Amino acid sequence: MQRRIVAVCIAFAFAAVVTLTKQHTQSTNVLKRDNYEHANYGNFKGFFNYALNISNRLASLNVKNFAECSLECIINAACYSFNIAIWSLKNSNSFACHLLASDKYNHSSKFVPSQEFHHYAFVSPCESSPCKNNGRCVSLYKENSYVCLCGDGFSGIYCEIDHWKQMTTSPVCFGASADSFGRFVAPIAGDLLTFKLIYQNGSVECAAGSSSHWGCTYPEMAQDHRLGTIITNSQSVRLLPKDYYFLKGVPCRSHFYGLPGQTVDSPELLFDNFSTPLNVSLGEEFQIWFTEDLYKCGYADNGLGKTCVLVFGLFV
């Protein structure tokens, strides 16, 4: 039987790659594994005083040093990173080693400073942040490559293609009373999936002292149904948001709604998508309303302030 040869390279944030064995250090790959008794190796990068706190640990081991922990990770086919304790266990020369089945790119919110652990991960093709427009990079370690997972409105290998089109060249303003809706027109023809409003300045007021970018902060309002900004067609018929998002059964307040991840003071208001893309013509008019002004319900005590926005459309 052939002897298994394992090579480990550790890359520190402040240093070049440090070779721990003399085997396979010239390879451009960051990871190699096979199902036989042939050579295995991996290049690791260290993140001192950081830990990846995910619950699905592959194994929790006691090891003599970080090299032993890294070898365990290479041998375990499901391992892509590990946390190792900074300090040895009480009355022992061993260190806690946690093998992990993921990396910080797939769980960025769980990658946190730590006074107890250092984190080591295979040198990732995502280190150069190749994905644009907030696309998520997923490492393909065995191929020494990656894929970009693009957010809504973006496509391309690097999420570099932007399908959002600015529909206004200057801010459009809308108020909460006296038919003070904002108006804009489509700068191009095409199939439209949704709208996005980018806050510029101002506010709307649904009652004295209750002002916000997009809705109502009145204390008696339902916490998750306080948005009141509506997109309509030129006949003031609501287009977005869809019925599903509105509060049900309460007079006047039923005209307010909630959208996932959106608040009354979010820097942008991203609407839900049309069930089927809306075909729009060049120069077609759209309107932005405050819900109480549109439906003429509960608007008597609304203030005179206005919210001003830039409008973007997602074309497909």
UniProtKB/TrEMBL annotation:
List the SUPFAM superfamilies hit by this protein, alphabetically: EGF/Laminin (SSF57196)
Which keywords annotate this record?
A: Disulfide bond, EGF-like domain, Signal
Tell me the leader sequence span. Answer: 1-21
From which domain of life does this come? Eukaryota
Matching InterPro entries? EGF (IPR000742)
- Residue ranges annotated for the EGF-like domain, each copy included: 122-160
All disulfide bonds of the chain are: C131-C148, C150-C159
UniProt-listed Pfam families: EGF (PF00008)
The UniProt entry, under Gene3D superfamilies, shows:
Laminin
Q: Does the keyword Disulfide bond apply?
A: yes
The record, for SMART domains, names: EGF (SM00181)
User: Per the record's keyword annotation, is Coiled coil included, yes or no?
Assistant: no
State the protein's name.
EGF-like domain-containing protein
Organism of derivation: Porites lobata
Q: What is the lineage of its organism?
A: Eukaryota, Metazoa, Cnidaria, Anthozoa, Hexacorallia
